[in-house]
Design brief:
Blueprint (H helix, E strand, L loop, with lengths): L2 H17 L7 H23 L14 H5 L14 H18 L4 H13 L4 H10 L2 H7 L9 H22 L20 E7 L4 E6 L5 E4 L15 E4 L7 E6 L4 E6 L10 H7 L1 H8 L14
Parallel strand pairs: 1-6
Antiparallel strand pairs: 1-2, 2-3, 4-5, 5-6
Helix pairs in contact: 1-2, 2-4, 2-8, 4-5, 4-8, 6-8
């Protein structure tokens, strides 16, 4: 495993250890997330071992000057993954889910049967994820009625290793001295998932909901609609979730959660921070704010 993957694994393990102490998260869910991450990292190692394949994207990147005006470097529909590895991971994660959460065993069985009968095509599902075709996944929810988002979770999780590797390689072309000022990912154009404040000055970094690239962004701005009037931007915290806050925008009525562990000795890993702060999603949605993306774990 490369040094970068070793560091990523260490970061995940520290955060998973903290999540294991969270009584609000079922042990089976923690086991599923932990097992998913372990298999994703193994898939990443395999993908990286095959080479970068930069010739597949280098000549298709958007001009940097256009990107700085708001275009994305490489729109998500142009992304690609190693489909063989993603398919193997899809199947492994289905088995894992059935083992970790008995409630998902039936969903795993129904998904396998649907593939055998031709009622669900994995290649089409991968195409739909790349295209951001939410309707496709809404239509397949009926295949697993007890766990409607099961197939969506599997497809997203199976493709993430390849998407993350490609996203990081593309983001390396983005000017390092620039702060992003638009309401979407500079790499793929997707909306952000979660925010965190880093460093003494509390620089804001957003994590993309699709390619999971983390990029620096303006702090006093709605990360979705771009609203920057301070009177329309607000935030709140709860005593039950120290180190987290919810940033809201009265213009678009959307919210993003923000991690601020600068005064805490706590590990931060954006995708797991999102899971740990799940209670905040429930609290803010009661205030009639919404988030335009699903969690990193498909719900």
């Amino acid at each position: 495993m490369s040094p970068d993957l070793e560091r990523e694994k260490t970061s995940y393990l520290k955060k998973l250890a903290a999540l294991g102490k969270n009584e609000g998260l079922p042990a089976g869910l923690i086991a599923l997330v932990s097992g998913t991450i372990d298999r994703q990292l193994a898939a990443k190692a395999r993908i990286m071992g095959k080479g970068e394949e930069e010739d597949r994207f280098t000549d298709r990147l958007e001009d940097v000057e256009k990107v700085l005006r708001g275009a994305s470097l490489f729109p998500r529909e142009n992304f690609f993954v190693d489909r063989e590895i993603a398919t193997e991971l899809f199947e492994a994660l289905s088995d894992l889910a059935a083992d970790c959460l008995p409630a998902l065993a039936q969903a795993a069985s129904l998904t396998a049967m649907a593939r055998q009968k031709g009622e669900f095509d994995l290649a089409s599902a991968m195409d739909a994820h790349l295209a951001g075709d939410d309707r496709f996944f809404q239509n397949v929810e009926s295949l697993t009625p007890q766990a409607p988002r099961f197939i969506g979770f599997l497809v997203q999780a199976a493709m993430s290793p390849g998407l993350e590797i490609l996203g990081e390689r593309i983001y390396a072309r983005f000017p390092k001295d620039r702060t992003w000022t638009h309401g979407h990912c500079p790499v793929c154009g997707s909306p952000p998932l979660i925010s965190r404040l880093l460093g003494k000055e509390g620089a804001r970094h957003l994590t993309c909901s699709f390619c999971h690239v983390e990029y620096r962004a303006r702090r006093l701005m709605c990360p979705y609609c771009g609203e920057d009037e301070t009177k329309k931007l607000d935030y709140f915290t709860t005593p039950d979730e120290p180190g987290y806050r919810v940033d809201t925008c009265s213009t678009c009525k959307q919210y993003i959660k923000t991690t601020d562990f600068r005064n805490f000795d706590r590990p931060s890993q954006p995708l797991l921070d999102d899971l740990e702060s799940l209670a905040l999603d429930i609290a803010v949605q009661k205030r009639d704010f919404s988030r335009p993306v699903l969690s990193a774990w498909g719900f």
